[in-house]
Design goal:
The complex is a heterodimer. Chain A contains 34 helices and 3 strands. By secondary structure, chain A is mainly α. In chain A, α11 packs across α14 and α12 packs across α17. The two termini of chain A are 33 Å apart. Helices cover 54% and strands 5% of the residues of chain B. Chain B contains 47 helices and 10 strands. In chain B, the strands form 2 sheets. In chain B, strands 1, 2, 3, 5, 6 and 7 form a 6-stranded antiparallel β-sheet that branches. A 3-stranded antiparallel β-sheet of chain B has the order 8-9-10. In chain B, a hairpin with a 4-residue loop joins β9 and β10. Chain B is globular. Classes of the chains: A mainly alpha, B mainly alpha. At the A-B interface, α14, α19, α22, β1 and α24 of A face α21, α27, α28, α30 and α31 of B. β3 of chain A pairs antiparallel with β4 of chain B, so a sheet runs across the interface. Chain A: Its main location: membrane. Chain A: InterPro entries: ARMD3-like, ARMH3_C. Chain A: Keywords: Membrane, Transmembrane, Transmembrane helix. Chain A: It is found in: Membrane.
């Protein structure tokens, strides 16, 4: 810029207004006071970088840090203005200046500075990242992409327990936003860096931040429901009446759900991008159980072990790991699919679970009989059952995941049928089964629950054909469900826990044969005409084995009951009949039952995530508040720097 | 006797330092009392000669030597032994050595030696050094040497010869007379020897060193009696057991000093075995402590491991010692000294000295090299000065995360000396690398063990077993963040670094098993023993070797495309075993799949298909057909009957493991064959590819006193050794114990075992049937081998149970290993305790009809063999009984352990159980009657029934 090129020549000139403002600004005066249009005016003036620079350099570090708040304010205001970069430094110098800014920020984050200062820097960076609602149009981020030096300090902050507890959330949020900037283009260095990150501590820290946020939500929810349950029927009645008018509880819930948006995206990005992150899914939180380090007093710790911190009982019981917290979170979130926002939230959860259930390593963790955890899944109170959460006992995580899907399937059979959520949910079950089949893992799961849930789903589809089919292509879903049964029928030997469970599968199929024959006739009806013709035809084909089973055993059972003169048979009797009649049955081998389309964000979910990130940015922006900074403490801390 | 006639010189040194003239600056610089020119260096040199070749095994006939010369030799020998000791060590030792000169001489001579001790004092932490140091080094004092000659000349007693100083005549009265009446050899030695050297002490070893005693007795002539004790000490038979025994029984400072000096030449393993005894003596017996101190300090300097072991034992055994006479007992002081981390290897201090000595003192630096003491002590001071200085520097530049589990560097002392180019170079050259940065030496290891303990404590706070299990998983995954580190399990002597703790393989153990009676009074609620498998990498010299680099990439590491072939090859042999592992751990596919991404999977799948054994291929025919059928539109038919049959078959295949029982997760964990577990964990470990990779099991116990277990280990180990020595084919399995404090410790789990309780519970059959199931029919070789193993181990443990009066023998405490050996664990009730003497377990040992059934029944060949073995074992044990008695007796002193509740009688009763006065026929009769009464013992049945009802132990 001109002023930069000849700084000496302007000495004697009259002070420009901008210079005056700069000066008063750096004297610490509240320049904006008394002038509502101050910021507008300021940005209309031609910026004088040299003056700004010299003012800045003249300040002692002490003064500088004291001015941090107004500076941030200034910068944030700058960012507000659309073409802030040009105004601040001019486009030609932008690259270099922003580079310096990044460098400085990285330095501030990495160095031994007070936490408040770091916090401000992070705020400023978040402000930069959230400057535009459409993240891909945020020109400022381009400069952060060129200078990816911010990544390491942020990772550093995440690695250490002390800094993590203060800044963790902001760090994760910042990384998430940075990763989401034009993520489909290969140029984003943060995507690359996050995906190859293999610092166990940093990854662990990242997961801790998410775990903390999720379990806080879980805990709040549990406390809430606990309250409402523990008050007698009278209060529950009143609250029911109250809920009619103001959905207070719902409001608070959606409030906190929204606040978790950023965290969810962060979780998704980590699971999706980073292979190493999976390992941290089952790692416990360090923050809960590690005492603050006391290097001096630990010399004879071994001899006189510090008494366990009895004074601080963990409100959540044992420290939870990320997957446990996430499953619990899902069970709460999916209770509400009424609004679009809530549905999106559930969708995002399911996307994460899809990624998880596709991952070999994660599956092996979830199926390890020695890795057992207590997962408290929340269940929606429904008419036909009580809302009591089951007594939780430690179990492999795959069991909890299946329970979760069963719960979803059973609790969303409604007119406003969330088809794509169902597709995702059943897809998760399918992926888990494929893993079990491929790796011959016999999970001790009560498969009957899953079968009956899936059958209920089919039954619902069949009986609500008019309402559901018109709006959706439910055949995709039906095919998926039927294929899951086919997987059990064909490959049951590889993953069912006992021979009896195979018999029980047949028992259930025979018991519900009506559902399948109805489904078959429905698919026949659609396979001749209409837009779903092909899918309907495939469904008919896939039902072949189930129909064969029903047709094979039903007469046998009939005959048996006639022979024994019994009208209704007990389960054991049916099972006996089944067992003795396997041999005369042949089935057709179905094709590629254990194949599924691997999850890919683009193109299917691209727009979804754009929308999600948009709301994350909105949240971030509203979460930033420079006025709340405690000046006194900041000054106290910064005075100690120099 | 001669010695009594000897001048009543008490050589007990004056406990307070005599006032020292300020101008005198060095020990050796003290003006010669008799005006003889001082040649301090030479004095030491001269002393070198003798013991060197003596200890080589060239035993000079002592009688021929004049007592004068012998004294000299021996006196020198002390130093010759010390030659092996690092320079600094020798200095300090000299300083701390109890005076061998007599005070009388010193009084006669010029002012006693100057402040060597004072110089060393700061390092030893105040008063303790002062009190020890001030006694000063008579050795180097010229006066003493001169005096010696005269002394010895007229006091030609064995005691004088032994003690390299005047005898203390008080010994006679002090001597515990216990040994004398019992052993037949005693009278002989007493007549031949001198009461001064302690008849008891000789007779104690009489059984084991008969030849020597006889020789000594034959040799003994009036006036040269002392020789045989010396000859015993110099004979090949003189081992640590005898040394410890004499150390304990001898009140003779000279004897004690001599023994300690000899200890320097014993192998470290030998002495380490007796460390609990040494430590207990250190705590209980101030005179022994004085002589032991230099040895312990020397070893502490050399090894972190030894330092920690010693500190822990000091801590554990001080806890209930009734030592109220001093403010700070010796043991505590030594412990604090060790933990203050000032006992560093000499090299480090030397290096620091190089760095830190200010140039203003070069004059002192170049003092005569012969004045080693002086130099060294000063360097110590400067070293400690510079150390502190450096430490502050390092904390400034890099934060210290020691102990902060969340930091990922909880066990990192911050020392990088071993990782520098120089360090690595030295390592490759085989040179000992030394740490010069002054980073804490003991802390990482302390923190590691501390972390294990605090996990146990937090587990104890958990209400349910499930919560404990989850908590354990969580805690261990945290611990892993800090590994690998330069830490190791003290349980195992092979050098290694801990690289990872596989959380999935850990298990919380049944602490219920530990409480035989529900009403047991002091049962702490927070006991939560747990079992860990620790992955380690073997290294030479764990204290210096570089730590393996962190491998986080658990996903790909062992499965890169290059290692594809080996991975597949490794998996292939295991394929036939697949059905057995399906149920529990998935299978090979799962194992590999752990680390596969989809892409890897596809590649390897094709590769694998090629290599797979036929059997394996058939397994997957359906998938294959499914794939093929995608091409051909021809429908492939399948039979559900086949599917179900395959399912039934794969589950009915014989299992090598118990089903996982949530109530008792350790059962399944323990039953899995060790080799299989090792292979499984190795396959999934990111460190599995490292050459020295090993899996080590360990049980961490919080809230349990393991000192008794430690004693039991020592006794079992001794029995094992002596049976091997005597070639009695008895089989015991001593399991190692590390006592961490009075109520915590580590136990070595016996792998490939299950308890009889678990056998019964999981297999629901009798022991014999279980044997048949596991090993095959009675005529098979496998069964016969297992049966022989069973008999040999059962006989051994019957003897153990009888001799040590081991109680609480329910089936949860008796293990069966995969070779059929019977192994007893849990020696919480032995010697004079039995749990609440309710009259249970009155039989000599546990021998149920079921055991006899496995042997083939009453009257069978194997049963007779069993009884013969017992007799042989008992005879062998009797022959070496002193070794066992020594261990017990030393530990008894000052101990509050429950097994010593009956006091001195404990040892007496133990001695009685060896039945020294019985002939072999009588012994045989005894064995028969004990076996008889055990088999028909009503109380055993009652006790098992009681256990079943109270604790559910079958």
């Amino acid at each position: 810029m001109a002023s930069r090129l000849r700084p000496g020549s302007q000495k004697k000139q009259i002070k420009e207004k901008i210079v005056q403002i700069y000066e008063s600004f750096f004297k610490g005066e509240d320049v904006a006071a008394g002038n509502a249009n101050f910021w507008d005016e300021l940005f209309l003036l031609r910026p004088r970088v040299s003056v700004l620079e010299s003012e800045l350099t003249r300040l002692s570090s002490e003064q500088l840090s004291a001015l941090k708040v107004p500076l941030n304010q200034l910068f944030a205001r700058c960012v507000d203005v659309t073409d802030a970069v040009d105004l601040l430094v001019g486009l030609d110098a932008a690259e270099r200046e922003m580079g310096r800014l990044c460098g400085r920020c990285a330095e501030l984050l990495a160095g031994l500075y007070p936490e408040t200062l770091r916090s401000l820097v992070l705020d400023a960076l978040l402000a930069v990242a959230a400057a535009s609602e459409d993240i891909n149009r945020n020109g400022l981020l381009e400069y952060l992409m060129i200078n990816s030096s911010l990544f390491e300090p942020v990772i550093q902050l995440l690695s250490h327990g002390a800094t993590r507890s203060v800044h963790g959330h902001k760090c994760v949020l910042l990384l998430t936003l940075l990763v989401n900037y034009r993520k489909s283009e290969p140029a984003n260095p943060y995507v690359v860096k996050l995906s190859i990150l293999d610092d166990e501590l940093a990854l662990n820290g990242y997961s801790q931040v998410i775990t903390a946020a999720l379990s806080e939500f879980n805990w709040k929810y549990a406390a809430q429901t606990c309250d409402s349950q523990s008050q007698g029927w009278l209060s529950s009645l009143t609250s029911m009446v109250g809920n009619m008018f103001v959905a207070d509880e719902l409001a608070t819930r959606s409030e906190s759900i929204k606040a978790n948006h950023g965290v969810l995206v962060a979780l998704y990005e980590a699971v999706h991008l980073n292979r190493n992150f999976i390992a941290t899914l089952t790692q416990a939180s360090t923050d809960a159980s590690s005492q603050p380090p006391s290097p001096q007093s630990t010399l004879d710790r071994e001899q006189a072990p510090a008494p366990p911190a009895a004074g601080q009982p963990d409100p959540l019981g044992a420290p939870v790991n990320l997957l446990v917290a996430f499953l619990q979170y899902c069970s709460i979130v999916m209770q509400d699919t009424k609004s679009d926002a809530a549905t999106n939230n559930v969708r995002q959860c399911f996307i994460v679970l899809t990624c998880v259930s596709e991952d070999q390593y994660c599956n092996s963790l979830m199926h390890d009989p020695n890795l057992v955890f207590v997962v408290r899944l929340h269940r929606l109170p429904m008419r036909h059952r009580k809302a009591t959460d089951r007594p939780a006992h430690p179990q492999p995580l795959a069991t909890a995941l299946l329970d979760l899907t069963v719960e979803f399937i059973m609790s969303h059979l409604m007119k406003r049928f969330p088809l794509d959520l169902y597709l995702q949910c059943v897809g998760i079950v399918h992926r888990v089964l494929c893993y079990q089949k491929r790796c011959r893992v016999r999970l001790g799961y009560h498969w009957r629950e899953l079968w009956s849930a899936l059958m209920s789903l089919l039954k619902f589809i069949v009986s609500n054909e008019n309402a559901v089919v018109k709006r959706n292509n439910i055949f995709e879903l039906a095919i998926l469900v039927v294929n899951i049964f086919n997987l059990f029928i064909t490959y049951g030997d590889t993953f069912l826990p006992t021979p009896t469970s195979y018999d029980e599968l047949y028992y259930e199929l025979i018991r519900m044969h009506q559902v399948f024959s109805n489904l078959y006739s429905m698919s026949l009806r659609y396979s001749n005409e209409g837009e779903h013709r092909e899918a309907a035809m495939r469904l008919t084909n896939n039902l072949v084995n189930i129909r064969a089973i029903c047709n094979h055993f039903s007469p046998k059972i009939e005959a048996w009951s006639q022979a024994n003169n019994q009208t209704s048979l007990t389960e054991d009797q049916v099972l006996d009949v089944v067992r003795s009649n396997y041999e005369s049955l042949t089935l057709k081998l179905q094709e590629s039952l254990d194949q599924y389309e691997r999850y890919a964000e683009s193109p299917r979910y691209s727009s979804f995530f754009t929308a999600v990130v948009r709301s994350v940015i909105r949240d971030t922006w509203s979460g930033l508040n420079f006025d709340q900074v405690d000046h006194a403490s900041l000054l106290n801390q910064t005075s100690a720097i120099s | 006797m001669a010695s009594r006639a000897a001048p009543p010189l008490t050589c007990k040194p004056a406990p307070v330092a005599l006032p020292l003239p300020p101008e005198v600056t060095a020990v050796h610089g003290a003006p010669a009392p008799c005006g003889r020119p001082r040649r301090p260096g030479r004095a030491t040199h001269q002393r070198n000669l003798s013991l060197d070749f003596r200890s080589m095994g060239i035993v000079l006939p002592p009688v021929q030597h004049s007592s004068l010369r012998r004294t000299h030799h021996r006196n020198r020998s002390l130093d010759s032994v010390l030659q092996e000791i690092p320079e600094l060590e020798a200095a300090e030792e000299t300083a701390l050595k109890p005076a061998l000169s007599c005070p009388r001489v010193r009084r006669a001579g010029p002012p006693p030696p100057p402040p060597v001790a004072a110089a060393a004092a700061p390092r030893l932490g105040g008063e303790d050094a002062a009190s020890l140091g001030s006694t000063d080094s008579g050795i180097s004092s010229d006066g003493s040497e001169r005096d010696f000659r005269g002394d010895v000349e007229h006091a030609a007693t064995g005691a004088a010869a032994m003690a390299s100083g005047p005898a203390r005549s008080a010994i006679d009265s002090d001597w515990p007379p216990a040994g004398a009446p019992v052993t037949g050899a005693a009278p002989v030695t007493v007549t031949a020897g001198t009461p001064v050297t302690g008849a008891g002490s000789v007779t104690v070893t009489a059984a084991s060193v008969t030849p020597v005693t006889v020789m000594a007795a034959g040799d003994a002539k009036p006036g040269t009696q002392k020789s045989w004790l010396l000859r015993l000490f110099e004979s090949k038979l003189f081992d640590m057991s005898i040394a410890v025994n004499y150390l304990f029984n001898s009140k003779e400072p000279g004897v004690q000093t001599y023994i300690v000096n000899r200890m320097f030449s014993f192998s470290e393993e030998d002495t380490d075995f007796f460390l609990p005894q040494l430590v207990n003596m250190y705590i209980q017996m101030p005179d022994v402590a004085e002589v032991l101190h230099p040895y312990l300090v020397h070893r502490c300097r050399k090894s972190v491991n030894f330092s920690l072991h010693t500190a822990r034992l000091l801590d554990a055994y001080s806890s209930d010692a009734n030592l109220s006479n001093k403010k700070k007992p010796l043991g505590t002081r030594l412990r604090n000294l060790i933990l203050s981390d000032e006992l560093r290897p000499k090299g480090a201090t030397a290096a620091e000295r190089r760095l830190a000595v200010p140039p203003a003192r070069p004059g002192e630096q170049t003092l005569s090299p012969l004045r080693r003491t002086h130099q060294r002590s000063r360097s110590d001071a400067t070293a400690s000065y510079s150390k502190g200085h450096q430490r502050t520097g390092s904390t400034g530049s890099m934060r210290c995360y020691l102990g902060d589990i969340g930091s990922g560097r909880a066990f990192d002392s911050g020392c990088s000396c071993y990782d520098t180019a120089q360090g690595k170079c030295n390592d490759l050259l085989g040179r000992r690398v030394e740490c010069v940065c002054g980073a804490p030496r003991l802390r990482p290891q302390l923190e590691f063990i501390g972390a294990l303990m605090s996990i146990g404590q937090r587990l104890g706070a958990m209400p349910t077993r499930e919560a404990k299990t989850t908590q354990l998983l969580n805690e261990l995954s945290l611990l892993n963040l800090n590994l690998p580190a330069r830490v190791w399990l003290p349980l195992y002597s092979t050098g290694h670094h801990v690289v990872r703790v596989p959380a999935q393989a850990a298990a919380v153990l049944n602490s219920k098993d530990k409480a035989p009676y529900m009403l047991y009074p002091h049962l702490p609620q927070d006991k939560a023993p747990y079992m860990l498998y620790v992955e380690v990498v073997e290294v030479d010299g764990p204290e210096t070797a570089p730590v393996p680099a962190k491998c986080i990439n658990t996903l790909r590491h062992t499965r890169s495309e290059e290692s594809l072939e080996t991975a597949a090859a490794a998996a292939a042999p295991a394929a036939p075993a697949l059905p057995t592992t399906f149920s529990l751990y998935g299978n090979m596919d799962a194992e590999n799949a752990d680390c596969w991404s989809q892409e890897d999977d596809d590649i390897s799948q094709q590769y694998w298909q090629l290599r797979r054994p036929r059997l394996e291929r058939e397994r997957d025919t359906i998938s294959q057909m499914s794939l093929e059928s995608a091409d051909s539109r021809e429908p492939v038919l399948i039979a559900p009957g086949d599917i179900r049959r395959r399912l039934a078959d794969s589950l009915a295949a014989p299992r090598s493991t118990f089903a996982r029982d949530p109530e008792d997760p350790s059962a399944a964990v323990l039953k899995e064959p060790w080799a299989e577990k090792e292979r499984r964990i190795r396959a999934s470990s990111p460190y599995g590819h490292l050459a020295g990779w090993r899996l080590l099991p360990v049980i961490v116990k919080c809230g349990d006193d393991l000192r008794q277990e430690l004693l039991a280990y020592q006794l079992l180990e001794t029995l094992d050794r002596l049976w091997k020595l005597e070639r009695v084919p008895l089989w015991v399995r001593p399991y190692r114990i590390v006592v961490l404090s009075a109520d915590s410790g580590l136990i070595e789990p016996v792998v490939n075992t299950v308890s009889l309780h678990q056998v019964k519970k999981n297999s629901r059959m009798s022991l014999k049937e279980y044997f048949l199931q596991e090993f095959g029919d009675v005529t098979t070789e496998a069964f016969l081998t297992a049966q022989r193993n069973f008999v040999q181990s059962c006989a051994a443990y019957c003897i153990v149970c009888y001799l040590l009066q081991v109680k609480d023998r329910h089936n949860g405490n008796i293990l069966l290993d995969s070779a059929g050996h019977l192994i007893h664990i849990d020696f919480g009730f032995m010697l004079s305790t039995s749990p609440k003497n309710l009259g249970f377990e009155a039989s000599p040992f546990k021998l149920t009809p079921e055991f006899v059934e496995v042997m083939g029944g009453l009257g069978s060949d194997m049963f007779e063999y069993f009884k013969i073995l017992m007799l042989q074992g008992l005879v062998a044990a009797r022959k070496h009984h002193e070794k066992l008695l020594t261990l017990v007796e030393i530990m008894r002193s000052g101990s509050q352990l429950p097994c010593f509740r009956s006091g001195a009688a404990t040892v007496q009763f133990l001695r009685n159980r060896f039945h020294m006065n019985m002939t072999e026929e009588q012994l045989q009769y005894l064995v028969d009657s004990m076996v008889e009464s055990s088999i028909h013992s009503l109380t055993t049945k009652l006790y098992d029934g009681f256990q079943y009802f109270t604790n559910g132990i079958l």
